[in-house]
Amino acid sequence: MEVEQINKGKYEHYMQKEIHEQPESLTTTMRGRLIRGGSCKAKSVLLGGLKDHLRTIRRSRRIVFIGCGTSYNAALAARPILEELSGIIVIMEIASDLVDRQGPIYREDTTVFVSQSGETADTLQALEYALENGALCVGITNTVGSAIARHTHCRIHINAGCEIGVASTKAYTSQIVVMAMLALAIGDDTISSQGRREAIIDGLFDLPNKVKEVLKLDEEMKDLAKLLIAEQSLLVFGRGYNYATALEGALKVKEVSLMHSEGILAGEMKHGPLALVDETLPIVVIATRDACFSKQQSVIQQLHARKGRLIVMCSKGDAASVSVGGSCRTVEVPVVEDCLQPVINIVPLQLLAYHLTVLRGYNVDQPRNLAKSVTTQ
Ligand code: F6R
After folding, report:
1. Is the CB of 168 under 6 A from ligand 1?
2. Domains (ranges, CATH) in the chain?
3. Tell me: the pLDDT tens digits for 185-205?
4. pLDDT by residue (tens digit) across 146-181?
5. Which protein residue has the closest C-alpha to ligand 1 atom 5?
């Protein structure tokens, strides 16, 4: 580890530094892996660690993502693009739950173990279980030489650089990018999706610039944190690509600011959560442009009709159309390809969690009761 990597530099906390480092960490994650193409060569992705296994992966019956916490959320964010580009069934498993259930894992499965540290006990136990069941095991970790990196059949390193703050931030966005590249690599032999893949690759090249842009919301998120400082609870509604953003945003808020927060699948709103809505409970609704946008507009209308206290995250230029006559607070974010939007949308929520914690006077880098690497069950 380089000394300057461990220094906080101009930042007060590691979490703050790691949030602001994301344009660089994403660049490092993609370095040497995106091929620009040329006059007669298509744009593509090269994942060295997987190249001997891609044919097996393409033939697998299911892809099973396995992880805990933030790593699970990153896989959930990447699930739709993996389904779309691979055409393979993609299953999500929380590592401890898979082990508790002894859920079915088959020889024809590709299991993908996602872990920042590569040492998480629950994920390691699930890996042992998948190996016993004969599945192909792929590791996605940020730690070269970690147990998960060593025991999987093949691996992709996240290369986000060392993360010191207990709350995972830059590793999360890099994990999503790695899994988007995995989807591109698996789908690489399909002519019909070539246009879509090339658009995503162009989007990946531009992503660090877009993250730089969204980081400019820092002051705005600090102001929002000042407004929310004394709240008991914060709900985050998302769906589609941004269901994961809702879960991850809420996880960041709860783990560092010690405020209760829950990520909710907006499609489930009427099946229970609506009962919580009143004029006091703050609710973040993620309503950036994608195939679910009109459904999220209707969610906003319904929450507004029940006097919900809304903060709407929308695409640049959409504030007027989502704020129901200017009655909700809005946070505008830059637009990227739909499957990469979770990388952008989580940044304001990371900043909000950070500022809430500092304003509430808690330890942002080492939250109460938590450890960076959870090596016991
Ligand atoms: C939250 C966080 C945890 C970890 C989880 C798994 O910010 O960091 O939820 O994501 O403990 O850890 P890894 O990714 O190391 O397997």
Report:
1. yes
2. 3-213 (3.40.50.10490), 216-360 (3.40.50.10490)
3. 999 989 999 999 999 999 999
4. 999 999 999 999 999 999 988 999 999 999 999 999
5. 69
- Residue 228 CA neighbour count, 13 Å, CB half: 32
Residues 6+ away with beta carbon under 8 Å from 51: none
* 14 Cβ contact partners less than 8 Å away, ≥ 6 residues apart: 8, 163, 164, 165, 365
Question: Which class for 259: exposed (0-12), middle (13-18), buried (19 or more C-beta within 10 A)?
Answer: buried
Rg of the chain over all Cα atoms, to the nearest angstrom: 20
Alpha-carbon distance of 259 to 13, in angstroms, equals 19
10 Å CB burial of residue 265 (0-12, 13-18, 19+) is middle
On whether the CB atoms of residues 286 and 240 are closer than 8 A, the answer is no
Q: Is the CB of residue 249 below 6 angstroms from any atom belonging to ligand 1?
A: no
Q: Which residue stretches of the chain are H helix?
A: 3-6, 14-20, 22-30, 54-58, 69-86, 95-101, 121-132, 147-151, 170-186, 194-214, 218-228, 243-257, 293-305, 319-322, 341-360
Rounded-to-integer distance, Cα 24 and Cα 143, Å = 17
Both tokens assigned to 172: 């999360």
169 with 372: CB under 8 angstroms? no
- Choice from 70, 141, 372, 375 to test ligand 1 binding pocket (greatest atom count within 8 A of CB): 70
Contact 249, 284 (CB under 8 A): yes
